[in-house]
# Entry
Amino acid sequence: MSKSPYLSVIVPVLNEEKSLIKFYNELILVMKKFKEYEVLFIDDGSDDESIKIIKEFIINDSTVTLIQFFKNYGKSYALSEGFKYSSGDIVITIDSDLQDDPSEIPNLVEKIEQGWDVVSGWKKNRKDPASKTIPSKVFNFVTRTLTGIQIHDFNCGLKAYKKKVVKAIDLYGGLHRYIPALAGKKGFSVTEIEVNHRPRIFGETKYGNNRLFHGFFDLFTMLFTSKYFDRPLHFFGSIGLLLIFISFGTECYAL
# Structure
């Protein structure tokens, strides 16, 4: 029998006091199937009782760690800190609002053990209103087309990574949506599996109506930095050549 992998589970949290106890109980029930694991709660500036609840977990569970921010920096920064401090051979990310199902974790791990570097969850039967699902379909189609990474759900919170992936990726802004694309650009293998998605029970989504706009803005940022970061003159040179041709054409027309 092969050795059970050491897992790190990263849980970004922002004002989830109503869901945390139920989420934790579900998660730990699943994690006990693995011999070694750690759970990193990354509190992104909660102003409710979330921190108090997580500290109560820590008292009775040595596998739980809290990383606390004193203001809201955003999900990308939260995941980045989690990636930095994680120690597992396999790293799982999962949201704590109960829409992601912890029972899917063994399926993600199994796929990683088949040789994939990144396994993204696909909420094929998504339990959200049309106001969220329709823009999401557009977003995922455009992202899939422009990045060449053929998965259906870039923004699913439920993902698994080999350790080498999370240590190689830099996140900022809203780039957490594009981790599969960032990983693919670095040569890592990316796939997806269907995962169970559940209706929201408590609270409201943390993302406003401008999420789609910011998402596309971050997409073009990611495409620019991944393609031109090491060769900025290729980008600015292209603009310069275009302006030269326009100026030349204008000059010829004036003559």
Remarks:
- DSSP finds nine helices and seven strands in the chain.
- The two ends are 82 Å apart (CA to CA).
- Strands lie at 7-13, 37-44, 64-69, 90-93, 118-122, 159-162, 190-194.
